[in-house]
Amino acid sequence: MLERFSATLDAGLLERFDGLLDRHGYENRSEAVRDLIRKALVAEEWQSGKAPVMGVITLVYDHHQRNLLNRMTQIQHDCQASIISTTHVHMDHHNCLEIVIVKGKPSEVRALADRLTTLKGVKSGNLSAATTGRRLT
Ligand code: NI
Q1: What span, in angstroms and rounded, lies between the C-alpha atoms of 123 and 95?
Q2: CA 75–ligand 1 middle distance (angstroms)
């Protein structure tokens, strides 16, 4: 069921908001407001730390780095969060890209991401904070 509400805001702020809508390709303000609300709710899920969240860890590393592959495997087997899937791409002779999709409490997902991204030999590591989507319509 859809409900309508109105909001009052400063004209300058609204103008900037409309500019943002244009640049990102939103068709109307409602869709943009819905996305902002969902983004805030996902951020809150990550802060509250109770419900399970989804995380996507992206790693770029040199597979020739001594012990790196062993340590990465060990960490993934030992972690408290559940690893749903990993995808590995051999980008060139040295560089690998790995994507690890994880489900768990925010603290568990963050801990795994921290352990992996700080390993010696990891050139680029990033955690993308996603959601199970269950509480977002
Ligand atoms: Ni590789």
Answers
A1: 9
A2: 18
Q: What is the pLDDT of residues 83-114, one digit of tens each?
A: 999 999 999 999 999 999 999 999 999 999 99
For range 111-130, the mean pLDDT: 96
- The CA 121 to ligand 1 mean position distance, Å, reads 13
Helices 106-117 and 68-78, axial angle in degrees (round to 10): 170
Looking at residue 34, what DSSP letter applies? H
| 78 CA to centre of ligand 1 in angstroms | 22
Q: How far is the CA of 90 from the centre of ligand 1 (A)?
A: 4
- Cα pseudo-dihedral 29, 32, 36, 37, rounded to 10: 70
What secondary structure letter does DSSP report for 27? S
Please give the pLDDT value at position 80. Answer: 87
- Among candidate residues 122, 134, 8, 121, the one with its CA nearest the CA of residue 57: 122
Tokens of 35: 């996305």
pTM above 0.70, yes or no: yes
